[in-house]
Amino acid sequence: MENVKINGLIAAPFTPFDDKGEVDHSIFKEYADFLADTHFEYVFVNGTLAEGMSLTVAERKATAKAWVNSGKGRLKVIVHVGTNCLKDSQELAKHAEEIGAFAIAALTPSYHKPENEECMVEYMAQLAAVAPKTPFYYYDINFATGVYINCSKFLKLAKDRIPTLCGLKHSSRELPSAHGCTLVEGGKYQVLFGTDVQYLSCLVLGMSEVVAAPVLGNLFHEIKKAFDKGDLETARSLQCKAQRLNEIKDRHGGGINIAKSMFTILSGLEMGSVRLPLRALTLDERKRLKTDLETAGFLDIAKPK
Questions:
Q1: 3-state DSSP call for residue 219?
Q2: Which positions make up the binding site for pyruvate?
Q3: How far apart are alpha carbons 46 and 212 in whole angstroms?
Q4: Potential cystine with 226: which of 97, 235, 285, 288 (Cβ 3.0-4.6 Å)?
Q5: Which residues are catalytic?
Q6: What is the average per-residue pLDDT within 42-55?
Q7: How far apart are CA 193 and CA 179, in angstroms?
Q8: Cα gap 35→30, rounded to integer Å
Q9: Structure confidence by residue, pLDDT tens digits, 64-106
Q10: CA dihedral of residues 167, 172, 177, 182 (deg, nearest 10)
Q11: Topology classification of domain 9-231
């Protein structure tokens, strides 16, 4: 698929749950406006932070549609459709195309695993084929899936097998691997980098599109602006600020449950808890997290300005 390029910050939003653990559809419009007002131009929905693998197919369809409707005119929607079942993923991909998603992405099955790059290409080719008008991105997050492939080799093999392939979301932390993907076929494929604490390093290597936690819109907008001006001192200082925020998250456990609570605290939007098997935070844990964020001066870091 020619001339499809993502240009702008991509949020990886959490899925909001109500007190009963159901998806809270009442908040999506406010949520989408918040992200757009903090410099995000795209959302990567039903992915890792969204607990997409803990949602049913029906819930994922409803959530994808809610994002498309709520973000209309302000946010372009990339729908993650990966599952452990090809037919479920195909159903989600077809639906994403029907509702007008900007793009789809899929991670690998992680129980019965593709054994090599050739097998991965065949799987993704069959998945992407059911949405022939929609750009497709492979999603690599090897430390979570336990599937380790050579992403550059995947892109080379997929060139003639997946006509809608536009690149990959590279969340596997290995910067040389991500950079190598940008060199395949003369830079044909776009790398959406998913390790946001390495954002400035990505910019230096020519990877300007990052999939970031939704608290980071303002900060990453300023990093990119400083970098584009050649002001590396300011860009480094801002990246250090992002690192300090990440360190607070890690001190409290570092999981999606912590990150989701951080977003609720810093945005003022109630995201609810997480689904099992993730552990919900206690009230005391949330209070301690808020105290640490306040002490560090971060309470206004994520809000629209």
A1: helix
A2: 211
A3: 14
A4: 235
A5: 139, 169
A6: 98
A7: 10
A8: 9
A9: 999 999 999 999 999 999 999 999 999 999 999 999 999 999 9
A10: 20
A11: TIM Barrel (3.20.20)
